[in-house]
Amino acid sequence: MKFIAKKTQCVHSGRIDDERVHGINTPIYTSTSYQYLDTDERFYPRYFNTPNQWALANKVCALEGAEAGLIFSSGMAAISTTCLSFLKTGDHVVFQPNLYGGTQHFATGKLNTYGIDYTIAASQRTSDIEAAILPNTRVIYIETPSNPLLAITDIAEVAELCCSRQLISIIDNTFASPVNQNPIRLGIDIVLHSATKYLGGHSDICAGVAVSSKENINHIWELAINLGGSLNAITCYLLERSIKTLALRVAQQNSNAQTLAEFLVEHPQVKCLHYPGLTSHPGHEIAKKQMTGYGGMLSFELKEKNSIEFQKKLKLIKPSMSLGGVESIICSPAITSHRHLSQEEQKKTGITDELLRLSVGIEDINDLLADLQQALI
Ligand SMILES: Cc1ncc(COP(=O)(O)O)c(C=O)c1O
């Protein structure tokens, strides 16, 4: 049976029936050795084809409206393997600016060593992305909402551009999660996630996902089995279990983040605030068109307060790295997620020392408001 509603997909899609004792959860298949004489299948974890890998990939495919998927051992494994599978020496790739620091570091620090050229577009506007295309461009890579500035890229426009120029379009959909945004339905070729964030949702799993057409996934798979960044069965099972509550968690995170953004943007101590759910956000109209919820991430700068001292004053919201968990956490991207960028790159991207990124959890909104309020005094 095919499920349409996200909440139902989260719980039921991709589950494997337990035919032996009829438990209602997917059994965990830990074997790395599978008998082969009576079958044409060659199961092996690094081939990305063992039962828990399939079950999880199918669940994410249902949520993203994709035909096929691969589960990786981290978001960066999904990003690097996918990009490299469509790029060879002499090719060129266009990245939007405003990317997760690790992705930008991969682009600027590693691609050239394989003879792959890249351009970071002047902005995430489609016209600037188009202006960066060269005759040898093969791939366009976007991330929306972006980490940490919540910049919004018009997904349908970029997909159309790629289609008309016969380029592969890749999106990092981590910040939105498949609950708030489904880029394949807007024409994007390949959707990536750091499953370490919302999909895992409890700050205890490191994983990544790529979903697309069967043809694209087979193509990525050919490199993936060589690079070897697959995920073990137990973590696949834990991730499958986590996704059962994804829609509920994200709904609460959307709602909490909207309330906190509305509170912070009006606060006299707040210099600027980035959240696509605010009508004042420059990408709001595009976000409204392509997202069903604005997500649980926001970033802001304070006027007078030192950002580190402010984080120390918080009692409930922990200054921690990563994002997307059930607990609210805060960080300074300049010294965490984007610390590998040079000062010049940070400046160009708008990541100041004072910028704070808040990953909003599922706690009671009044407790979150009270914590921010007491730290802002
Ligand atoms: C938007 C985004 N994409 C990708 C990644 C990389 O994911 P991972 O740390 O699971 O490799 C991150 C990590 O913070 C991220 O924020």
From TrEMBL:
The modification N6-(pyridoxal phosphate)lysine is found at residue 197. It holds the Pfam family Cys_Met_Meta_PP. One of its GO terms (cellular component) is cytoplasm. Its cofactor is pyridoxal 5'-phosphate. The keyword Cell division does not apply. Keywords: Amino-acid biosynthesis, Lyase, Methionine biosynthesis, Pyridoxal phosphate. Gene3D superfamilies: Aspartate Aminotransferase, domain 1 (3.90.1150.10), Type I PLP-dependent aspartate aminotransferase-like (Major domain) (3.40.640.10). Its EC number is 4.4.1.13. It comes from the Bacteria. One of its GO terms (molecular function) is pyridoxal phosphate binding. GO terms for biological process: methionine biosynthetic process; transsulfuration. The keyword Amino-acid biosynthesis applies. Belongs to the trans-sulfuration enzymes family. This is cysteine-S-conjugate beta-lyase.
